[in-house]
């Protein structure tokens, strides 16, 4: 008895020249993981310049954004006196996880560094208000 794949003239090589091999795909995934790992090590060591470098490479390589990578890079930008970039990343954290307190805190810190104290306070107040209504 022929299988449906054999009877229909299935050719397992059809289109193969346009596909990643499993080895290429796993190497790409390994490169992403290694780059993130180097960023994690730099962050742990408070090496914010390299944290930014490795996490920036990770962001470009990842198909799905990571809230943790954006949060750590935002903090590193803050520690490197790059508040505008920190604010951008903190907003990305909120896109990834809308109700994560870290994103609001990082945004408030960045706004404060940008001398937008009223906006920073409003950010914290809005978050506190949303938390109290979600608990009730």
Automatic annotation (TrEMBL):
Entry keyword annotation includes Nucleotide-binding: yes
One Pfam family cited in the UniProt record for this chain: TPR_BSK1_C
An MF annotation (GO) of this entry: ATP binding
GO terms, biological process: brassinosteroid mediated signaling pathway
Residues of the Serine/threonine-protein kinase BSK1-like TPR repeats domain: 6-108
GO cellular component: plasma membrane
Top-level lineage group: Eukaryota
Keyword Transferase: yes
Keywords in alphabetical order: ATP-binding, Cell membrane, Kinase, Membrane, Nucleotide-binding, Serine/threonine-protein kinase, Transferase
InterPro entries the record matches: BSK, TPR-like_helical_dom_sf, TPR_BSK1_C
Subcellular location: Cell membrane
Name of the protein in question: Serine/threonine-protein kinase bsk2
Organism per entry: Pisum sativum (Garden pea)
């Amino acid at each position: 008895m022929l299988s449906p794949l054999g009877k229909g003239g299935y050719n397992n090589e059809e289109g193969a020249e346009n596909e990643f091999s499993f080895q290429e795909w796993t190497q790409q995934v390994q490169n992403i993981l290694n780059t993130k790992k180097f960023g994690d090590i730099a962050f742990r060591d408070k090496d914010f310049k390299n944290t930014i470098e490795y996490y920036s490479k990770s962001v470009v390589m990842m198909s799905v954004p990571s809230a943790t990578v954006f949060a750590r890079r935002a903090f590193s930008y803050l520690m490197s006196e790059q508040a505008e970039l920190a604010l951008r990343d903190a907003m990305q954290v909120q896109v990834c996880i809308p109700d994560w307190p870290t994103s609001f805190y990082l945004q408030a810190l960045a706004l404060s560094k940008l001398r937008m104290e009223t906006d920073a306070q409003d950010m914290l107040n809005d978050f506190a208000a949303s938390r109290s209504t979600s608990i009730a």
